[in-house]
Amino acid sequence: MIFLFLLITTSFGFFKVPGCEENPDGEFSESDFDFVPDLSTLSFTIGLVIMIGTILSVIPQYVKLIRTRDSSGLSPFYLLIQFINQVTTVANACITNATYIHSCVYIGFSQCFPVLVSWTQIMLLAMVYLPQIFFYLLFYPNKKEFILFKLPLICLPIVIIISIICLGTVPLLEFTDGECGDITGGFAFVYGIIAAVCVIIQWSPQIYMTFRRKVCKFLNFNII
Fold first, then answer.
1. Are the beta carbons of 129 and 121 closer than 8 angstroms?
2. Would you kindly state where each structural domain of the chain is located, as residue ranges?
3. How far apart are alpha carbons 184 and 62 in whole angstroms?
4. pTM for the predicted model, two decimal places
5. Residues 22, 100, 121, 14: is their CA dihedral positive or negative?
6. Rounded CA gap, 28 and 160, in Å?
7. Cα 182 to Cα 176: distance, rounded to the nearest angstrom
8. DSSP 8-state symbol, 20
9. CA atoms in the 13 A half-sphere facing the CB of 155
10. Mean pLDDT by groups of 10 residues along the chain of 224 residues
11. Which of 111, 118, 113 minimizes the C-alpha distance to 96?
12. How far apart are the C-alpha atoms of 186 and 223, rounded to whole Å?
């Protein structure tokens, strides 16, 4: 916690939300949104395809869980780390895209939405990924097992509370420090770091085992 506090405080002013360098006071008018990029139709289409594809890649997992009613093939700790990853990614995305979202009021939805495709993807992915841990606990066959059921069940409320606190800081920062505040940018930077660390922790064992065994049959092609 001390390290996290130091990381946040030293990050003040290190990261700037798009548009805040031009408007450091955080006061925007209709003429202040020149920083919103104009994406080409091709870029927008590619973004939509990626967004839809990544969401569809998760559906087979849910179908398998519901059909077999057995989640023993999943790692609860992977899912818990993924939960934290998704929450911090959402928090980071909401802060870093706040000015783009704000721009929709002035320049119109049709002009701001192409830039927000990645933000929309993050939101949708979070809604798709976050329930996985609940499905795991619901369908785990041996509910007397401590390591793979009871321990994750104990950890889940803690993770949820931490997640609520993380997400709660986003509107709090927006109202108190503003979209362009140094503290807001510091939190965005830290949330991004946490999300990146979670991804490394999530995938490192799988990458290591795949490399060691020289076998990739345990990887899910759809997710890749």
1. no
2. 75-129+150-223
3. 36
4. 0.84
5. positive
6. 35
7. 11
8. T
9. 18
10. 54 70 75 80 83 84 90 88 93 92 85 86 89 92 89 92 92 89 86 91 76 58 46
11. 118
12. 31
